[in-house]
Amino acid sequence: MSGSFDLRGEEQLLRICREAIDQCPAEQAQVTVTATDRGLTRFAGSMIHQNVSERDCTLTVKAVNGKRVGFASTNQLSEAGVRETAELAARFAASLPETPDFRGLPEPGDAYPDVATWFGSTASLGPDERAAQVAAMAEAAESAAGDSARLSGSLSQTLTETAIVNSLGIEVYLPCSMMSLVTVCQCGEGVGYASACGRDAAKLDFAAKAREAADVARLNVDAVDVEPGEYDVVLMPYAVINLLGNLRGCGLDALRFQEGRSFMSVNIGQKIVSEKFSLWDDGADERGLARPFDGEGVAKQRVELITEGVARGVVYDSYTAGREGRESTGHGTGGGLNERPAAMNMYLGAGGANVGEMIASTSKGLLITRFNYTNLLRETDAVVTGMTRDGTFLIEGGKVTRAVKNLRFTESLLRAFWNLESLGSEIVVGQGIAAPAAKIRGFRFTSGTEF
Amino acid sequence: MREFCQQALDAAKALGASYADVRIVRRRNEAIETRNGAVDRLSSSRDEGFGIRAIVNGAWGFASSSTISEEEGRRVAELAVRIALASASVSGAPVTLAPADVADGRFLMPCRRDPFDVPLEEKISLLLDADRLMRANPGVGIAEGSMEFYRTETVFASTEGSYIEQEKTESGAGIVATAIRNGDVQRRSFPCSMGGDFGAAGYEFVEDWALTDQAERIAAEAVALLDAPVCPSGAMDIVLEGSMLALQVHESCGHPIELDRVFGSEASFAGTSFLTPEKLGEFQYGSEIVSIAADATAPGGLGSFFYDDEGVAAERTDIVMEGVFRGYLSSRETAARLGLKASGGAMRADGWNRIPIVRMTNINLEPGDWNLEEIIEDTANGLYMMDVKSWSIDDKRLNFQFGQEQAYEIRDGQLGQVFRNPTYAGITYEFWRSCDAIAGDDDWHLWGIPNCGKGEPMQVGHVGHGVAPARFRNVQVGVIK
Questions:
Q1: Residue ranges per domain, chain B?
Q2: Which of A235, B122, B176, B382 has its CA 20 to 30 A from that of A150?
Q3: CB distance B90–A138 less than 8 Å?
Q4: What H or E segment, with its residue span, contains residue A32?
C-alpha cells in the first residue's frame, strides 16, 4: 500500500480562518488552522510492534480586546464548531483583567523567506513503505554487526498544513512534511544509537543509520566501570544537540531574559563560552526543518544568539518584543502571550576537526554517543545533569580502547562550552537543533550506573 | 454511538481482523495561568475523535480520525486493517491477548462541584489573590498561579462484545513564588511543584488546597532561600516530603514496572528496565517495610478509572510486598507474553488519536507505622528535603538524581537551618533498601501528576502516587558546588 495524502489546500484552510475571524466579536483576532496527518511505525527486536495513523484538524482562535486576550480551540470544524469557538475566545477576552504589557497582534511585516517545506518523497511513504524500510534497516544492521543485531525504534512521517489569519492583515498558508528515524541497535549486550530527520525523506539514508547504530553496538561490549570525575570528552552530535536543547531551555528566549532567569540576562555583550562557539537561529536554512514564519505568521529572522563566544541576543515573539518596544524576531510558538518564544531552528557552527582527530588528540577521555534524561539543576549558570546512553567508550593514548558503563554528568553548560577545544566539520540535524561533534576538556561526571 | 462502533467493528472484521476495538474520546480542557498580576493564559479546548485498533495476521494496526461519521468509520477501519497487514510483513510471533471479561455499562466518576460551571471570575480571582499575596513580599520577582480542568468521555467497544462508556473529571492547581537576585534564582511552590496537585475530582479539589493561605509563606521561603547556605554534600540520612517521594516512586518504581518497557517497546526512546522477568517474586527491591501497589481503584486518583482503554476492569495489583518485587503493570498482550492469567488493566491512551500503551495507574507506597514528627525526632543528623526542582534517571531506571526546592537540616531530632540547592542521588534498589521509616495514614496523600511522558508519538499520561514522608539512610547528598 502506497501512501496517499490529500492536501486540504490553501483555499479551504484560509476560508475557515476567515469565517472564524468574521464570527469573533473582538477588537482583534488571530485564527490558526492546523491539519495533521501522521503515520508512525515502531519496531523492537527488528519486528514491528506498533503501527499507527492519525488525521486531525484543529482551529485555535486568539481574541483580543484592548489588553485582554482569550484563547479557544476545537477540532470540530463544523459551522457551529467554528462559531462557538470564536465566540468563546471573545467571551474570555472580554472578561479578563488587562495584561499591561500586551501591545496587540502583529501587523504584516517583512517578506517571508522562500524555503522548501513540502516534499512528495515524504508524503508518499505509506505503511507498506515504512514496513519495507524497517526490513531493510534490520538487514543492514545484521550485515554490519552480525545475525544477533536487532533494531528498535520508530520511523515517523508527519504532514501538516498550517493557515494563520489575523484581523490586521496577516494571511499565510504552509504545507510541511517531516520524516524522522530514531533507532537503537542491540547486539548481544551491546547497544548503539543513530537518528535522522528532515523534510525530504529522499535525502535520508535509513539503512546507513541502521549500520551506524550497529557499528556502535558491535563495539559497546564488555563495558567496565570508570571512576566518576573530570574527563576530556568527545561528544557525538547527538550528545551536543541534547546539551544545546538544555541551553535553549534555560535562557535563549526573551521571556526568561526579561525576567532575569536567563544566563543571557546579565551577560549580553560578554564572552560567556569559547570563541569557537557560535550559535544562531535561522528558519530559512534548509539543512534543518526550515519554516518561513512563526506561530503568529511573522517572518522568521536569523538571530545571532552567541557569536564567537559572546552573548549576542535572544529570540522574541510579538508579546515579548512589545515589552521592549521592538519588533518580533518571528519566534512565537502559539500566539504570543501564553507561550514563550523559542529558538526552533538552532545551528551550532561547525569547526574544522573530525571525530577521528578529536579522539587522536585525547590522551585520556571518553567518547559519548548520546545523553539520556537530561534536566536543568540551576538556571543562571545552566547547570544540567543527565546520563550517558547507547555507547560510551574510553579513549586512551589517542585511541578508543574499550566500552565503559554509563555515567551521570552534572555540569554547567557555560563551563563546558568555555572548555570547548574543537568542533566537528559536519553537522547532524535534529528536530530543531543542528550541531557537529565537539571535544570538551574537563567535563564533570558525578556518579555511575550498573550497565 | 453504539451503532457507529458496531459498524466500524463490523467493517474491520469483514476485512479480516481477528480482533478489533474502537474508542471514541471527547475531551474538554480549561486552563488558567496568572503571572505577576495578569492572566497569562486563559484557554479552552474541545477535542474529539475515534481510533480503531485491529489485529490482522497476528499483527497490530491502528488508525484514527477526528471526523466521527459512518463513512469515516469505514475508511479508518479499512486503514487500520491495511496498516496491520503492513505490520504483519515485518512481525514476529502472532499477538496473543490474555482473556478479558466482556463488559457493558456506563460509569461516571463523581465530582462535587463541576469546574466548568464555576464562574470564570471566581477561578481567576482565587489565582490573582494568591498572586497579590506572593508579590506583597518585595523580594518576589515572579508570582505564578495555574489551574487546569479536564473532562474526558470515552466509549470503548470491541469485537468481543464489550461496550463501555466512562466519564471522568479532573482538577488541579498550584502557585509558585520565584525570587531572583544577583544571578541566583530560587522558588517555592504550593501544594507542590510541576504545576501543582491534581485529582479525579471537581473544583472542590482546588478549594481544599486553600492556595491563598500558603501564598505569603512560600513567598517568604523563596526570598529566604537567596540568603540560605548551599546544601552540604556527603552521605546522609534524608527524610523526603510527600510530593518529592511521589516523583521518586514515579521514576524508580512506576516506570520500571511497565511490562511493555521490560519487553523492549520503549528501547529507543524512554528506555528499558532493570526489573527483568527473572526478578519477579525474587528480587529484593526495598527494605521489608516497603510495600507498593498499583491501584486503579483508588478514590480520587488521577490514575483511577473503571475500565482501561482495552476494556479491562480497574484493579489493585501488588508491585512490591515487604520489599520483594511481585508484579508488573501489564496489558492483555504483555500479560499473555509473560504467561500471566490476565492483564493488570494498565492500558491507557492519550486521547482518540493515540494507541493504548501500558501506563501507570496510581502507584502507591503503603503507609507505615510512624508519623512525620516521630521520624524527624528519631533522626540524629540529616536533611528534610521537599518539593521537586529537577529530576533525572538512567534508561534502565537505576541511577537517579533529584533536586529539591529546599531542605531543612535535622539535628538531634529537630528541624534547623534551611539550605538551598539540595540534591540527592542513588541506585534505585539500594535507595529503597535503605528505607527504615514511613509515615502513616495521617500523613499519606495521593498526589496527581498530569504530565507523564511516554511513547511515540508522545503520549501524556495522568497518573497518581500515594505516599507519606519516609526516611532513607546513608544517601549521597549533593554533587556540585
A1: 2-225, 234-477
A2: A235
A3: yes
A4: strand A28-44
Q: At what angle do helices A206-219 and A127-145 cross, to 10 degrees?
A: 30
Distance from CA of A96 to the nearest CA of B (A): 7
CA distances from B408 to B403, B413, B469, B471 (A): 14, 12, 14, 14
pTM to 2 decimal places: 0.96
Q: Check residue A4 and give its pLDDT.
A: 55
Give the strand pairing for A149-166 and A28-44. Answer: antiparallel
Report the candidate in A195, A227, A240, A241 with the shortest Cα–Cα distance to residue A394. A227
B210 vs chain A: nearest CA distance in angstroms? 22
Distance of alpha carbon A253 from alpha carbon A245, whole angstroms: 12
Q: Where are the beta strands (DSSP E) in A236-302?
A: 279-281
Q: Is A80 on the interface with B (CB under 8 A)?
A: no
Which pLDDT band holds residue A95 (cuts at 50, 70, 90)? confident
- In the predicted model, is pLDDT for residue A97 greater than 80? yes
Residue A101 phi/psi, 5-degree rounding, is -85, -5
Domains observed in chain A: 10-206 (3.30.2290.10), 222-451 (no CATH)
For B62, the closest of A53, A373, A444 (CB atoms) is A53
Distance of CA A2 to the CA centre of its chain: 29
B348-390, pLDDT tens digit by residue? Answer: 999 999 999 999 999 999 999 999 999 999 999 999 999 999 9
Give the tens place of pLDDT for each residue, B276-331. 999 999 999 999 999 999 999 999 999 999 999 999 999 999 999 999 999 999 99
Q: Which of A69, A131, A408 sits opposite B401 (nearest CB)?
A: A408
Q: What is the nearest CA distance from B284 to chain A, expressed in angstroms?
A: 16
Return the residue matching grid coordinates 472542590.
B204
- Joined grid coordinates for residue A343: 529558538
Point out which residues pair with B46 in neighbouring strands: A74, B28
Say which residue the cell 503520549 belongs to.
B459
The two beta strands, A230-235 and A364-378, are: parallel
Compute the distance between CA of residue B267 and CA of residue B261 in angstroms, rounded to an integer. 7
Q: Write the pLDDT tens digit of every residue in A341-373.
A: 999 999 999 999 999 999 999 999 999 999 999
Residue B277's CB is within 10 A of a number of other CB atoms, namely 14
Tell me, what's the pLDDT at A340?
Answer: 85
Instruction: Look at residue A5 in the predicted model and tell me its pLDDT.
Output: 64
Is residue A2 predicted with pLDDT exceeding 70? Answer: no
Span A246-269, mean pLDDT?
A: 93
Q: How many CB pairs under 8 A join A and B?
A: 249
Q: What is the CATH number of domain B2-225?
A: 3.30.2290.10
Chain B partners within 8 Å of A35 (Cβ):
none
- DSSP string over A373-425: EEEEEETTTTEEEEEEEEEEEEEETTEEEEEB--EEEEEEHHHHHHTEEEEEE
**What is the b/e burial string over A387-417, where b = at least 16 CB atoms within 10 angstroms of the residue's CB?**
bbbbbbbbbeebebeebbebbbbbbbbbbbb
